[in-house]
Amino acid sequence: xxxxxxxxxxYSNGVRALVDVSLDIPKGMFGxxxxxxxxxxxxxxxxxxxxxxxxxxxSMGGLDxxxxxxxxxxxxxxxxxxxxxxxxxxxxxxLDHFAILKGIANRKERKELVDALxxxxxxxxxxxxxxxxxxxxxxxxxxIAQALIxxxxxxxVDEPTAGLDPEERNRFHNLLSEIGENVVVLxxxxxxxxxxxxxxxMAIIAEGRVLHTGxxxxxxxxxxxxxxxxxxxxxxxxxxxxxxQVISTRLVAGDTVIHVFSEDNPNEGFEPVxxxxxxxxxxxxxxxx
Length: 289
Ligand code: ADP
Known about the structure:
The protein is of the alpha/beta class. It has two domains: about 1-215, 3-Layer(aba) Sandwich (Rossmann fold), CATH 3.40.50.300; about 225-275. It contains ten helices and 14 strands. The chain has helices at about 40-45, 70-75, 90-100, 105-120, 135-145, 165-180, 190-200, 215-220, 235-245, 275-289, and strands spanning about 1-10, 15-25, 30-35, 55-60, 65, 75-80, 155-160, 185-190, 200-205, 210-215, 225-230, 245-250, 255-260, 270. The strands form three sheets. A six-stranded mixed beta sheet has the order 6-7-8-3-9-10, with helices on both faces. A four-stranded antiparallel beta sheet has the order 2-1-4-5. The chain is globular, with a radius of gyration of 21 Å. It binds adenosine-5'-diphosphate. Adenosine-5'-diphosphate binds next to helix 1.
């Protein structure tokens, strides 16, 4: 279990990127869902020992992650948002190089590991291709391959599915799910479906604060019976926003469908809908605002 307690960070320009963040992150896939600028990368870089918070603690299995950084790096796999590689090197050579950096000196052991990683991430057939010829999805799978070197117990992936097409996203999801069975995988995203499809637990974060945490299903259950839907004219959206808590508006075949949050039935032609994770997310953000 990764335990984060009272973590705060204010950048020198005055931006409060983390405000008293506490989270318990067990084994399995944990989704950190929030809009751009919420503080997700700041939190992930801090856990990955790349920057220090102003206050707070992070521990895992009795280890203090903010002090024993060298120890942490031995069991950490990290795929940052901006993942740079040498473009002219083949996937295989680059992985081999990363494995050397991770301390795997034995050539035979390294070869076996690189083979296994290339297979696991479905890149074995393209192992001799230069990295600058890789598609976005292939690059992300390569990023996971390097993050898996050294059998990490904690894997951090920052916005890994941004820019991937649906098929690649699906493939990437499957890869992460396999990995997430035995280790802590922390995934940040602004895409609700990533969390809904993948994560056994999650937190919604905005403006540096944790707004909600729990299992996606539990969080959705909290909203049961409180989400209402109505199809309206597009011009009427503002009027509804004045009198109700409109949490989302969506164009469907030329009409506008709004979802509102209300403890009681608002009548006026509204019908109840089962809350989905999008409703949870947008209502959490609205409440925070
Ligand atoms: P997210 O990953 O959720 O998009 P970030 O952690 O990148 O959020 O950013 C949180 C906030 O902190 C944003 O307002 C961002 O502009 C600001 N920020 C991030 N890094 C720095 C930095 N190095 N210096 C100043 N402000 C920063």
